[in-house]
Amino acid sequence: MFDNLTSRLSVVIKTLRGEARLTEANIQDALREVRMALLEADVALPVVKEFIARVKEKAVGKEVMSSLSPGQALVGVVHQELIAIMGGEKTDINLAAVPPAVILMAGLQGAGKTTSSGKLAKWLMEQKKKKVLLVSCDIYRPAAIQQLELLAKQIGAAFFPVQAGQQPKEIAAAALDFARRHFHDVMIVDTAGRLAIDEAMMAEISALETLLKPIETLFVVDAMQGQDAVNTAKAFAEALPLTGIILTKLDGDARGGAALSVLQVTGKPIKFAGVAEKMTGLEAFHPDRMASRILGMGDVLGLIEEAQRGVDQQAAENLAKKIKSGKSFDLNDFKMQFQQMRNMGGMGAMMDKLPTQLTQAAQKVKMDDKVMGRTEGIINAMTPQERVKPEILKASRKRRIATGAGVTVQEVNRLLAQFEQTQKMMKMMNKGGMAKMLRGMKG
Ligand code: GDP
Predict the structure, then answer these.
(1) Which of 161, 333, 345, 434 could form a disulfide with 349 if both were Cys (CB 3.0 to 4.6 A apart)?
(2) 101-285 architecture in CATH?
């Protein structure tokens, strides 16, 4: 899947070099490669255009971190935008309804509706501990109802028995009543496959939607159908209040374009991905994992991630050595730490990485991102001598620094108190092993 994107980007990484900043000129060729690769993967043209525009906007002017090549930095931007175009965060299935929560399955014949109904039932039973009822309203395809019944048996889900001659609306109403009386948490309703252009069929599923008031109306779409699938999705989205997408057959030789286009075209998130024929072959859809899979560059992505964490390894190691050798931690080191924290995406991001002991200490001195910026300003206003020997900071020097940094003397005092706290923390860390802490930060 998306093999071409990977190989085209590999070329880009090698050729885009030697620049400290990404510019419109230096990324032009690279963007052309990305564009070609997306079109080859059957991503819809408007989506490609929008995607390229977004990557360009994010990339131009971006500084390239010292540990990355410009090509790698651009891959980082492409990766982020791939995630964004697929919805960013994972979108959970919504079951917040008076039971039964009804899930209506819509889609073309052969898309994988019946199979996905079974898989979803299994997933809800296992992952969410729900009591699930499977219902088939597909009276047109002779074996459809039996197919779902068989799957229900296989996974141990309840199945609603259909009487001969019942119409879809009658089945739906009776099933809803049955589910209420038998305390089912969730009722999954499989429908007949239909073409969007078939007005009678579309009217029927609309009527089912009105009757059942589903909390989720999921459009099941075959990833292998590429652009066709996306166009159908659009027609369905216009006719039915869809709430999400199930993208099936991602295990096949799908070129993958549908994964990128479908959200953009329908405005609905992909909630699940079908990755095998068997009943366990359904996964919650994670845009970030999908983006990594599409790029297929585990090594480069790892590198980018590490750089984005922004630990300037050399500086950090120098600091570790300095502290180990018994030299005191001064305000220059303090400032460097702030800069590193900022590179790492602020205090919040770093807190997750630090050992608890240090996190607690840092919380005690109440460092947040805003304070971090002011702190740097104050240290900048000090002379080199003052930074190395903070003990010489008496009232008049403090006043000068406060004026220079545009803060009050109290703030300077607060910073010095924080610095002392951190100095103590560093001594503590030295005992506990600075090297260990830095490894933790890299992790
Ligand atoms: P429906 O007409 O929409 O109900 O489609 P079906 O559920 O009958 O599926 C059509 C075919 O696609 C069947 O052979 C399924 O086994 C197969 N299928 C469905 N989902 C997947 C999937 O995620 N991966 C693979 N490999 N096959 C799938």
Answers:
(1) 345
(2) 3-Layer(aba) Sandwich (3.40)
